[in-house]
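So, who can interpret the following?
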Amino acid sequence: MKKLIALLLAVVMVLGLVACGEKTPETTAPNAGNNETKPVETQPNTAEPEAITLKVWGPAEDQVDENSFLQVACAKFAEAHPEWNITFVFEICAEGDAGGQVSKDPSAAADVYMYANDQLGSLLQANAIARLGGDVEAQVKADNSETMITSVSVDGALYGVPFTGNTWFMYYDKSVYSEEDIKSLDAMMAIKPVGFEVTNTWHLPAFYFAAGGNMYGGVGDASQGITFGGEAGTAATLYIANALAAGTLVEGGGGAGLDGIRNGSIGAMFSGTWDAKNYKDALGENYAAAQLPCITINGQECQLRSFAGSKAYGVNPNSANLKAASLLAGWLGSAEMQDLHYELRNGEVIPCSVALIESGKYDADPAAVAQNDTIANTSFLQPTIPEMGTYWGNADSMGKALVNGEINADNAAEKTEQWNAGLNNSGL
C-alpha cells in the first residue's frame, strides 16, 4: 500500500511540472543591459492616420496644375507625415494681397498663406498670424540672414518663414555700360539715359536714403519718424528733378522702361525678379543685372538704397490644425523647397537660404546675384509698423509732382518740407 501511495504522488508531481511549463505569452521582455522590462507588441499597429484639411493660399503661378510648386511641395509634405491623411485646398491670393484678405476674416482664411513682410503689422493687428516657435523657429534662424529673420520678427518674436527676398535692383545693357560704369548712376546717365520709376512709391525713397534720410531710425521706432526733409532731403529732390528735366533720367513706369530697353532709348532700368524674363528677352546676349549704383550729391558719393524685405509663409492662429499648419509652413520655406520653387517657377523666385546662396548654385543667374547683393549691400529694411500707412499716399503725390515737372530749384525746399511733414502726420 505504501508503495502505491508513493507512486501516485510521483505522478501528481510530474503532471504539476508539465502544467507549469505551459505558460501564456509574455507581455514584457528583458531589456538588455538592465533588469527592467519593456512592452512587446503582440498585435500590429493598426492606428489610422488622422484625417485633416489644410487650406493654402498663394499666387496663381504657384498652383496652375499638379506639377506646380504648391501641389508638388504639399504632396511631398504629406508623404513625410503619414500620421495625417491630408486634404489640401489651394486658393489664389497673391503675397501682396494677403494682408488685406486674411485680415478681413481670419477665421475663414487659409491655414497657411504667403505674404509680403510689409503687411506683418496689419496681420498682427487683426490677430491673423501666429507666432512660430520650436523646430520651425530654430530652422528659420539657422537658414537665414539677420535681414531675413528681422523682416518677419517683432520684438524678437518670429511670425513667418521667409522663402525669398523682396526688393528691386538694376537691369542693364552690358554692351553700353562697363562693370566700372555701373557703380555710378551719374556715369551711366552721361553715357545713355537710364529708366527709373519715380512714381513708384516703393522706389522713390532710394534717393532720400542716399542723401542720409531715414525711416523710424531703421529699427521700426515710430517715435523717430521719417527724416526726408532738411537740406539733405532738398538735395535729393533736386537731384531727381534736374535729371528728369535733362532727360538723363526717364520715368519708366507703366512699362515705359521695358519699352525703352527694347527700342534702345535707355540703357538700364530698375525692377525685380518678377521681370527677369522680360529683360532677358529684351537684352538677349547683352542681358545683365546688378545691385544699385551710387549717386553724387553736393560733391559726395552716396549709395542708392532700395526697400528690402521678404516674402514668407504665415500661419493662421485660428487654424483647426495648428501643429500641422506650422510644420507645413516650415516645410515650404525650407532650403530644399526653396530650390524646388526656383526650379518650378523658372528662376522667378530666388532662394534666400544662406546655404543655398553660398553654394554658388545660382551664380550664373544675374538676377539672383543682383537681388542677393542688393539685399546684402544696397538696401534699407522696409518698416512694417502701422505708421507706414501714411507714407504711401504722400510718396505717390511727390513722385507725380516730380515727373510732371512741378518741382524745380525755386520750390524744391518748400515742396520737400511739405512732403516730409505729411510723411510724419500719421494721425495714430
Residues 233 and 373 are 26 Å apart (CA to CA). Residues 2-21 form the longest helix (20 residues).
